[in-house]
């Protein structure tokens, strides 16, 4: 039987990566709707069901990365989404503000860093970025092809050793 990471890997061959298909394949409910000021997205657990909600008021590339970030929390950290044996209802990520404004418990700053790294790997898979980089060699065009911000693509290119 295929595990969750293998399921995700099936969708990493074409840009932009189809996040909606990944959510569907994993049985995660996904929605975009206006949510609280400063809130980018959340992952919620009800029993064994998970749902992700992304702030519809944010730009398309931000919504896309937020969705991938919450997907990464599911893949990496869903077992932490319980407190003293009781299910944690929701983990909300906020884009701005001081770290104390982002109630991460039980997630730590390290969990957030891990989620960001995996989110980048999902929306900008290394083999596909390398292939497309050979075609475009332009961060703006690559960003558009992958549905991410130019800044995110520039970071990914540096991480992959494709840009200084």
Quickly describe the structure.
The chain has 164 residues and is of the alpha+beta class. The chain is 46% helix and 18% strand.
Task: Describe the protein in words.
The protein is built from 7 helices and 6 strands. It is α+β, with helices and mostly antiparallel strands. The protein has 2 domains: 4-123, Orthogonal Bundle (Arc Repressor Mutant, subunit A), CATH 1.10.10; 125-164. The strands form 2 sheets. A 4-stranded mixed beta sheet has the order 1-3-2-6. Strands 4-5 form a two-stranded antiparallel sheet. Strand 4 and strand 5 form a beta hairpin. Helix 3 crosses helix 4 and helix 6 crosses helix 7 (150-159). The chain is globular. Mean pLDDT is 86; it is low at 96-102.
Any chance you could write out the topology, listing elements then pairs?
Elements: H1 4-9, H2 19-26, E1 29-33, E2 39-46, E3 49-55, H3 60-77, E4 82-83, E5 86-87, E6 90-94, H4 109-123, H5 126-136, H6 139-146, H7 150-159
Parallel strand pairs: 1-3
Antiparallel strand pairs: 2-3, 2-6, 4-5
Helix pairs in contact: 3-4, 6-7
Which properties best describe this structure?
2 domains, alpha+beta, 6 strands, 164 residues, four-stranded mixed beta sheet, Arc Repressor Mutant, subunit A
């Amino acid at each position: 039987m295929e595990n969750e990471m293998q399921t995700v890997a099936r969708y990493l061959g074409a840009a932009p990566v189809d996040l909606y298909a990944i959510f569907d394949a994993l049985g995660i409910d996904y929605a975009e709707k206006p949510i609280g000021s400063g809130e980018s997205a959340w992952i919620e657990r009800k029993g064994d069901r998970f749902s992700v909600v992304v702030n519809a008021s944010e730009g398309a590339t931000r919504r896309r990365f937020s969705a991938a970030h919450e997907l990464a929390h599911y893949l990496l950290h869903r077992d932490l989404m319980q407190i003293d044996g009781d299910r944690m209802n929701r983990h909300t990520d906020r884009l701005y503000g001081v770290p104390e404004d982002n109630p991460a418990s039980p997630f730590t700053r390290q969990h957030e860093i891990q989620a960001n790294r995996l989110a980048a790997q999902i929306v900008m898979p290394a083999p596909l970025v390398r292939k497309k980089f050979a075609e475009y060699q332009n961060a703006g065009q690559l960003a558009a092809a992958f549905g991410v911000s130019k800044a995110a693509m520039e970071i990914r290119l540096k991480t992959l050793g494709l840009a200084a």
